[in-house]
Amino acid sequence: QQQVKQSPQSLIVQKGGIPIINCAYENTAFDYFPWYQQFPGKGPALLIAIRPDVSEKKEGRFTISFNKSAKQFSLHIMDSQPGDSATYFCAASKHNTDKLIFGTGTRLQVFP
Amino acid sequence: EAGVAQSPRYKIIEKRQSVAFWCNPISGHATLYWYQQILGQGPKLLIQFQNNGVVDDSQLPKDRFSAERLKGVDSTLKIQPAKLEDSAVYLCASSLFLLASGDQETQYFGPGTRLLVL
What structural domains and CATH numbers belong to chain B? Predict the structure, then answer.
C-alpha cells in the first residue's frame, strides 16, 4: 500500500512532442502528489505538485492530471524541448506528514 | 540563496570499511532528510530530523547506519561496516519546517554523494 507505481521506465520524443508519464497509487491516505525533475549529477528538484481536490494543475508547459477514483495521476509536458531531457519522479505523501514515497522514475529524452 | 551542500561528491570504499557523509542544509531549514537512491530507483527516505530530533528513522538499517544532527544544522550519515548493496547515491534534503499548517513543505535536495562499495 506504500508503493507508487510509475510508467514508462523510459520515453523518447521529438522536440515539440507531448510526453506523458503515469503514476498509480493504492493508499487512499495519500493526499499530496509532487513531481520531481532530476538531471544527471544533480539532486531532484520539485517541478509541480497537486492535491486531490483538483483534477488538473498547470504551471508553464507542465500539467498534472489527477484521477482520484482511479488513483492515478500523470505529468504532461507540452511543447517538449531538449532541455527537458531528465529523469522524472512522481511521489506521494500522506496528510500531516512530509514523508515522500517516490516512484521508480522515467528517463525522458527529447531529440531536436 | 545557497542550496543544500553535500560532501564528498564521490566515495569508493571496500566492503566492511566505514564511510561518512556530510550535509549542510539551506540556512533556516529546520527539517533535514537523508535519502538513499539506488541506480534505477526513486529515492528512499532513510531518516528525517526536525531540528536535532529524529522524526522518522523507520527505514534506516540501524545495525550499520547511523545519523546525527548536532545543534540542529549540519548532519552526518555514517555506514559501518559497508556492504556491496549500499552502493547508491545518498541524497540530503531540507525543508523549512514540518507541518506548519498541515501543508507539505517543499523539500530541496542536494547534489548527493555517490558511493561505490567494492
Answer: 5-96+106-117 (2.60.40.10)
Tally C-beta pairs within 8 A across A and B: 55
Of A93, A112, A91, give the one whose Cα is nearest residue A38: A91
C-alpha cell at A19: 510526453
Nearest CA in chain B to A107: B40
What are the grid coordinates assigned to B98, written together?
514540518
Contact B2, B107 (CB under 8 A): no
pLDDT band at residue B96 under the 50/70/90 scheme: confident
Q: What is the mean pLDDT of residues B33-48?
A: 95
Distances in whole angstroms, Cα of residue A99 to Cα of each of A10, A23, A77, B63:
26, 18, 26, 22
State the Cα–Cα distance between residues B17 and A91, nearest whole angstrom: 33
Q: Check pLDDT > 70 for residue A106.
A: yes
Q: Over the range A93-110, which residues count as b (16 or more CB within 10 Å of their CB) and which as e?
A: bbeebbbbbbbbbbebeb
CA distance linking residue B35 with residue B88, whole number of Å: 10
Tallying the residues shown for chain B, one arrives at 118
Task: Report the pLDDT value the prediction gives residue B98, as an integer from 0 to 100.
Answer: 55
What percent of chain B clears pLDDT 70, i.e. is strictly above it? Answer: 93
Closest CA to B91 of A41, A107, A43: A43
How many angstroms separate the CA of residue B60 from the nearest CA in chain A? 14
